Amino acid sequence: MTNLPISADLIAEMNAAQTEALEEDYAALGRKLARGGIDIDAIKTRVAGFSVAVPSWGAGRGGTRFAKFPIPGEPTNIHEKLEDCAVIQQLSRVTPRVSPHFPWDNVSDYAGLREEAAHLGLGFDAVNSNTFQDQPGQTHTYANGSLAAQDEATRLQAVEHNIECIEIGRQLGSTDLTVWVGDGTNFPGQQDLGRSLDRYLEAAALVYAALPDDWRMLLEHKMFEPAFYSTVISDWGSSILAAQELGPKAKCLVDLGHHAPNVNIEQIVARLHRFGKLGGFHFNDSKYGDDDLDSGSINPHQLFLVFNELVEAELDPRDGFNPSYMIDQSHNVTDPIESMLSSAEAITQCFAKAQLVDREALHAAQEANDTMIAFQTLRRAYNVDVGPIIAKARAEAGGAIDALETYRLSQFRRRKAQERKPVGLGAGIV
Ligand code: PSV
Ligand code: MN
Prior knowledge:
The chain has 430 residues and is of the alpha/beta class. 48% of the residues lie in helices and 10% in strands. The chain contains 15 helices and 12 strands. The strands form 3 sheets. It has a 7-stranded parallel β-sheet with strand order 3-5-6-8-10-11-12. The relative contact order is 0.16. The mean pLDDT is 97. Bound molecules: alpha-D-psicofuranose and manganese (II) ion (MN). Manganese (II) ion (MN) binds at residues 220, 255, 282, 328.
């Protein structure tokens, strides 16, 4: 039995008014794609099988280190966050899983939380540990690092926390632990660059040893912030070396905002796959650094090129192909539900466009060193407006043809503003 937050009647009523136009657009696009030998229904089936997880922390308004501007009705605990994530899933039908973060989402009964999520039509994705912040009453501070800290007791505390996250994740039905540590330095000389990595590897191996057989440990690299001179797992190179040293269940997670500006992320994706270490993604967009902007809002072409590599990887799976897809954004100036609806759409669009690439033509052009045709083969797919395919897949799955408009008409946030306690002011999250 599910208990969904948006009225099914509202969705049906809105969809009824938009179905005719959608069918017309879908038929027109279908004819266009058929001229190129593409069956639109087959693409729609692929789209219907696609999904991306949402982060529990993304349901709240984010902020910068300067300020956070909460909105009335924003969620303040995991139960309310799940409710908001259920809205996103109900309308978009592409975000059926939530990725929780601990201790932010701590509760006393995880079996109960799993059931609560199931009633909302949700499951759980990767569990995330947090050793980048101190918690009230914590024995050892993370001010000087966690898994890579100089102090052994601090390292063991961070290991224990990660193992506890695995235990929570087992109860929630997760099979991935995502580990991002902010460990690093702000001054040259502050720590030994080689030995800090040794300490990280030794501590991470203790976490790895506690992984159940069917679990993966996803190592998330990040170039800088909170450490501004050096970070222990700063880039995909450090990440893959660590993953190789840890073992086959350790994979690399690519957060799109965690690289130097203009780095070729799609090439990183291809490299990680080549060595069997592509574990998953945190989707977001960036103009300057780890901006955590909405996916596809700044550089949708890059997102398309990432999915293009993923299609290639799936066609040539080598040791397997099972990357986890997740959004990781900070919604500082929008309603987080609206941002995640928009981002889920942008991500699905890039997934769909990548399916449209004429692979035979692309590979033939590559073989023949025909640069322009190879490029235009990608460009042709990128230029297609796949909106009707996604909207139809969504509607057929019970979602809203126009998810954003339906959300606004539902007045969900206004209703929650009356029920939920206000969030305090203050700085944002990482
Ligand atoms: C770090 O910036 C990060 O991308 C990691 O995924 C964290 O878990 C998340 O953001 C916390 O906001
Ligand atoms: Mn991330």
